[in-house]
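MODEL INPUT / OUTPUT PAIR
PAIR INDEX: 1
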Amino acid sequence: MAYEIKVPALGESIVEATVARWLKQTGEPVAAGEPVVELETDKVNLEVAADQGGVMGPITKGEGETVAIGDLLGTVEPGDAAAAPPPPAQEAPKAAPATPAPQAEATAADSAGVNGAASATPTAQRIAAEHNLDLSKVTGSGPGGRIIKEDVLRSVAPANPSSAPAATIAPP
C-alpha cells in the first residue's frame, strides 16, 4: 500500500505553504526518513521526509503550487530501492553538484544578503529571479529588514500600467 506524503503542521498561525522544489522525482528510490520535498513560507522553510522507504510515486502538487496543512503532496510506493531503474539514479549525481551550490548561495544570501541587500526569504529570492529583479534595489519590510515575498511583488507591480493613471489623477 502506498504511503501518502502530506503537508505537515508548519507552525503557529501558518496555514499554507508553497512547494519550493521536489528533491525526489517519480520512480526514484526513497529511503525512510529521507527528505523528498521542500516547502517554504515567509516564516519557515521545511523539508518533508518520507516516513517509509520505497519508490517515489505520483506527485500531486507541483513546484510553485500553494498547499494547505494536510494536503496530499505525493506518494511513496512500496518497493525496493534496487528495483528503481538505473538511469534516474545516474542522473541524480550529475544534478546534485549543481543543486548544492544554489542552496549554499541561498543560505549565504539569507544571512549576508544579496549584493549588499538585506537578507531575503527563499520565496522572495525565487520571485525576484523569475522577474530578473536585483534584490539590492528592494527595501525589506520583514523582521530586521528582511525582504519578503510582498516586498518583491511590490517592486514588480509598478510596471503595471493601471497604477500610473491613478497617480496622475490624484494631484488636482
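PAIR INDEX: 2
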Amino acid sequence: MIRTGNRRPGVVVVLAALMTLLGSVGSGMASAQATTVTTQVRIPLNHTVVVDGESYQVSGSLHALFHVTRDAAGGRHLKAHVNGQGVSAVGGGTTYRVNTAANFTANLGAAKEAASNFTAVVNFGLIGQGRTPNLRLHVNLHGTVNANGEVTATVAHVRITR
C-alpha cells in the first residue's frame, strides 16, 4: 500500500492545477474558436510517503508542462508531462535518488455540469545507494469527475519491480 502522510498532497496539488488550468482556458471566449495555452510550473516536494508501513521523506521538485486546448464546442482537453528534478527519498536507513516521469490527459465537457475524465501513467525509478536494490514503480490511473465536481479515481494497475 502506498499513501502519503497528508492525504496524497502531491496528487491533490497536481489535480487542482490541472482542473484550474482546464477551467481557465478560454473563459469568456466565443465557443466557435479553438484556443490553446501552454504553461510550465515548478511544484516543490517535501512530503512523507508511507510504503508498506515504512515512512520515507521525499524532497526535491517536479517540473510540469501543461498543454490545454479549448475546442470549438467549449470542451477542454489537457495533456501534461511531469518530471522530477533533484528528487530523493530517505527512510529505513536508505537514501534513494528518484527518477520520475508522468504523463496526464484530461477531458472536460463543454457544459459546467458535464462529467469529465483523466488518465495518468507514472513511472518512478528508485535508485538505491551501495548494495541497496533499485526499485521501479509503474502506475496507470484513470478517474472521473462527476457532474457535481466530485473526483473519483481508481488505480488500474500498479507494478513494482527490482
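PAIR 2 NOTE: The first helix runs from residue 9 to 24.
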